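Technical note accompanying the year-one report. For the benefit of new consortium partners, we illustrate the data format agreed upon in the data management plan: each record pairs a sequence with a structure-token string. No post-processing was applied to the example shown here.
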Amino acid sequence: MIRQPMIVAQLVHISGPLKGEIQEFSEQEISIGRHPSCIVRFPADLVLISRNHARIVREGNTFRLVDSSTNGTFVNGKRTKEAVLKNGDVITLGKGGPKFSFLSEVKEGAAAPEVQEAPPSPGVDAPPVPPPPREVAPPKMGGRGREEIVREQREVPLVIQYGPTLRSFKMVPVTIGKNPSCEMILDHPSLLDRHAEFFFSREQYWIRDLTGASMVEVNRVPVGSTGHPVNMNDEVFLGPEGPAFRFLGQGRFVELEFHPEEKPPEQAKNEDRPANEEARPPQDRKSLFKKYFRR
């Protein structure tokens, strides 16, 4: 059966009551507000948002935002009554209100009837028979009999929300870092030029560390240069000072509010001591006081 493509709108909520959610819609019109009939519904006590605040209307292969609110709707920080949305646009409902990123994606739709081809007429050469499917080679084995992780180049979606931006990729591997050669460039003080790489293997998403310093972690476990699989709701840390992401499945990663791990008081105290100052045992300091009072 042939499947017809379907265009869906994705809303990635960056702040507000729906923060962290990724919603997908195939409707012709997406209503946004506090009214119970709205598709994207906000709490009734969030009065900054109007009951019928805005609509996203599909027009062919494009989506148009139409504002009908009192406090306004902002696209990339600019107040607007109507705007054609582009992938990665950030919409704010009311000044300082909830934010979400917009993304449109083409997906497989419902199956359409398959057209039956007429049999070839006598005397006409039949079409060539396609070759049998290629056999998949057995997994490669690394040292000590361990299975080697194969980094596949695959057409799978990867969506990363970082701050007010939303990046979408249709193929992996995807490299993250500060270097312009990276597919996703992040200007963060903790990141190196080529910092980490998302890839696909064994039918799931993986991440590997490119720093050589064990900076990248999944659930606070270093992933190493070989890589580590990422499962639903796993937390990915790119460094001790962030940034951090949560995996929501289907290739979607959203930024987490990052809180560095607290160090034990004694460890923090020792780190605050100047390098040229040697730690003295308690009895040494006590003996100094004794010598002072004997004078």
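Partners are asked to follow this layout when depositing records. Residues 133-143, 284-293 have pLDDT under 50 and may be disordered.
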